Amino acid sequence: MAKIKAGVLGATGAVGQRFIEGLRGHPWFELTSLAASDRSAGKKYREAAKWRLESELPDEFADMTVVRVDPKEVDADIVFSALPSDEAKKVEAEFAAAGFVVASNTATNRMVPDVPLLIPECNPDHIELIKIQKERRGWEGYITTNPNCTTIMFALTLKPLMQFGIESVHVASMQAVSGAGYEGVPSMAILDNIIPYIAGEEEKVETEAQKILGRFDGERIVPADFTVSASCHRVPVMDGHTEAVWVRMKDDPTPAEVRQAFLDFNPGLDDLPTSPRKAIIVRDEPDRPQPRLDRNAGRGMSVSVGRIRPGIRYICMGHNTIRGAAGASILNAELLHKKGLL
Ligand SMILES: NC(=O)C1=CN([C@@H]2O[C@H](COP(=O)(O)OP(=O)(O)OC[C@H]3O[C@@H](n4cnc5c(N)ncnc54)[C@H](OP(=O)(O)O)[C@@H]3O)[C@@H](O)[C@H]2O)C=CC1
Ligand SMILES: N[C@@H](CC(=O)OP(=O)(O)O)C(=O)O
User: Fold this and answer.
1) How many structural domains comprise the chain?
2) Is 241 a catalytic residue?
3) Which of 11, 93, 274, 285 yields a CA-CA distance of 20 to 30 A from 260?
4) How many Å apart are CA 60 and CA 24, to the nearest integer?
5) What is the mean pLDDT of residues 195-210?
6) C-alpha to C-alpha distance for 91 and 70, rounded to whole angstroms
7) Catalytic residues (predicted)?
């Protein structure tokens, strides 16, 4: 089978680099185009990007020439978007209109009614929106999105709890510095410190999960009927968002029932290459999960949960630039391919 040609928009950035890492040697996708700003276009990737991951910059991409973020310059069937939101707003629709499948990691289109906000383990049926989106807009291509990196961790853990009738969720996040990009938080601001504010984050966290866990009624997504109240904080951790979660449920399950629901959760995505063997990993030690020890579980795609207590209260944690960003988009693209939409 010929591989599907993939491009990365914003390929030189923090998330762009994770895309390159995640697409290297992918069995279905071949990375054919690396796009970034005019500052980088025309340069070899190794000159344009400061490679900041622990893995080596793959040789096969180091000498690729970076192109501009322009549908006429990008050679691909699908583009993974890791652009700043304001730039994404301008160009993602242009790419979709030009016939590209756009798997976007940016906030720009997530809450647009005819754009699926996907977590394959939670709402694979929401891809039905794609047909509606294409008809409405008259596009050859289409846009899908993945959630904010804080939303995705707790939304995934809520999926197996939906059976108990979720009424309200409270979440307090402890977010890694990589979520803000390499130059996002100065070291003098975050070392020996916690910053109890992340611009725009609580608004996203308080709305996205209801769309993800909502019901597709044949025309639109009817949001899930629970409230989310969030408090978001930046902590001096490199990678891995940790979240304290309180969930009130109509059936008032015990911690043992909640633990069992997490253990039983099997979304049946074993045939997708980026899918972890376990989407949710239950840690029974009293002091887990921890970002340094648990963020790479399932190659960065598992969400670890622990400290399940009456209330119901628990901690969840996952890798913010893999499960929370590039890995999430790649998993979405794999779902689209499996469903014949790519
Ligand atoms: N799912 C999630 O929650 C997460 C999402 N994100 C989102 O992913 C996106 C990328 O974040 P991150 O990688 O940290 O950002 P970076 O600042 O590290 O990278 C930005 C990338 O976009 C390119 N770029 C910047 N401005 C322009 C422009 N005007 N035209 C074309 N390309 C441009 C840059 O190219 P150059 O190097 O040439 O300047 C670079 O490749 C953001 O929207 C961010 O919010 C990030 C983390 C997690
Ligand atoms: N706000 C997240 C990362 C991010 O960019 O989120 P979004 O994709 O919703 O803009 C963080 O700082 O950790």
Assistant:
1) 2
2) yes
3) 274
4) 9
5) 98
6) 8
7) 149 (acyl-thioester intermediate), 241 (proton acceptor)
Domain limits at 52? 4-148+325-338
Dihedral sign (CA 272, 273, 275, 281)? positive
Cβ neighbours for 40, distance < 8 A, ≥ 6 positions apart? 12, 48, 49, 66
Verify that 158 and 300 share a domain, yes or no: yes
Asked if 130 and 199 sit in the same domain, the reply is: no
Contact 9, 80 (CB under 8 A): yes
Whole-angstrom distance, CA of residue 151 vs CA of residue 339: 25
Ordered strands of the 280-283 beta sheet: 227-234, 166-175, 241-249, 313-318, 303-309, 280-283
Ligand nearest to the Cα of 232, by number: 2
Write the residue with the smallest CA distance to atom 6 of ligand 2.
148
Q: What gap in Å lies between CA 314 and CA 154, rounded to an integer?
A: 10
The angle, 0 to 180 degrees and rounded to 10, between the axes of the packed helices 85-97 and 129-137 is 80
161 and 256 in a single domain? The answer is yes
Question: Which residues are near ligand 2 (CB < 6 Å)?
Answer: 85, 106-107, 148-149, 175, 179-180, 198, 201, 204, 320
Q: Is the pLDDT of residue 7 over 80?
A: yes
- The CATH code of the domain that includes 264 is 3.30.360.10
Residue 176 CA, closest ligand 2 atom number: 13
CA-nearest residue for atom 10, ligand 2, is 107
Q: Across the chain, what does the average pLDDT equal?
A: 97
pLDDT tens by residue, 120-178: 999 999 999 999 999 999 999 999 999 999 999 999 999 999 999 999 999 999 999 99
pTM of the model: 0.97
- Residue 1 clears pLDDT 80, i.e. is over it: no
Catalytic residue, chosen from 149, 232, 316, 319, is: 149
d(CA 248, CA 230): 14
Asked if 171 and 157 touch (Cβ cutoff 8 Å), the reply is: no
pLDDT for the residue 315: 98
